[in-house]
Specification:
alpha+beta; D-amino Acid Aminotransferase, Chain A, domain 1; D-amino Acid Aminotransferase, Chain A, domain 2; 2 domains; nine-stranded mixed beta sheet; 8 helices; 29% helix; binds pyridoxal-5'-phosphate
């Protein structure tokens, strides 16, 4: 049984309560963040804290905590759950009031946190890689805001699962935006890592930002531009990045093998560099 955080209180998960009129529930009027913890230390905490503030500001929801309070809550939830490895989730909604599209300006945000244990540093799928399917982009246009509107992605990943794959690449105007819950990359046959430039078309991944810096420092060529699904299918390597899966090789798209059909060497190297650098900077 986990202990979760709800609006300033620590409660057993079965006793946790929020209102049926919470706008996160009625209107998906809420944002979330996910930070990985490895060996009791937080990976990329500053990036996640900064994106949390940006997401809230975009929706004009007041941020209920300072950066220091947020860090203290992460440490406390880990301690209360004897938690050292996995994902720490937080969700903040605009708050609760009687159902109405027009909301009151001064609602008190609802703030919940919970842990999900997993071995972040030892993912068996890194060895095999995963298959993905391409699907039309169907999410709303402000994908740079990390909202809890995850229904389209959930349905898409469910379809991938039913078709024997693990994830999706969303396609808009012929170009890949990102994956169901990660950013997408190709490695060209010349060894250039390509990932879509930042815009409202995709979430500005914290793992992506760190990885770009790390790759450039290691003299690996990086290009930020959109790529087509055909380029991905013909690439030397394809991979995804996210806080919990880190750097995940993609070995098939729409049932066709990518490159050799096995996880690629540059993907593996980038994952090693990422892990080494981020563990050294974990707090
Ligand atoms: N893109 C989407 C749609 C996501 O949901 C996520 C993570 O949940 C990412 C990208 C990767 O972001 P991060 O590296 O910050 O986890």
């Amino acid at each position: 049984m986990r202990i979760v955080y709800v609006n300033g209180e620590w409660v057993d998960e079965v006793n946790a309560q929020i209102s049926v009129f919470d706008r996160g529930f009625t209107f998906a009027d809420a944002i979330y963040e996910v930070t990985a913890m490895v060996g009791g230390k937080l990976i990329d905490f500053e990036g996640h804290a900064a994106r949390l503030a940006r997401s809230l500001a975009s929706l004009n929801i007041p941020c209920p905590v300072t950066r220091d309070e947020l860090l203290a809550l992460h440490r406390e939830i880990a301690e209360r759950n004897n938690f050292t490895d996995g994902a720490i989730y937080l969700q903040i909604s605009r708050g609760a009031e009687d159902r109405d599209f027009i909301y009151s300006p001064n609602l008190t945000p609802t703030f919940v946190m919970y842990t999900q244990a997993r071995n972040v540093l030892d993912n068996p799928k890194w060895q095999t890689g995963i298959g993905v399917i391409s699907m039309p982009e169907g999410r709303w246009v402000n994908r740079q805001i990390k909202t809890v509107q995850l229904l389209y992605s959930s349905l898409a990943k469910m379809e991938a699962h039913e078709r024997g794959a693990e994830d999706v690449l969303f396609i808009e105007d012929g170009k890949v935006t990102e994956a169901g819950s990660s950013n997408a990359y190709i490695v060209t046959k010349d060894g250039v890592v390509v990932t879509r430039e930042l815009s409202n078309a995709l979430l500005h991944g914290i793992t992506r930002a760190s990885l770009m810096d790390i790759a450039r420092k290691a003299q690996i060529k990086v290009e930020e531009r959109a790529f087509t699904i055909e380029e991905a299918k013909n690439a030397a390597e394809v991979f995804l990045s996210s806080a919990t899966a880190l750097i995940m090789p993609v070995v098939a798209i729409d049932g066709e093998p990518v490159g050799t059909g096995k996880p690629g060497p540059l993907t593996a190297r980038l994952r090693e560099l990422y892990i080494e650098d981020r563990l050294a900077n974990a707090i």
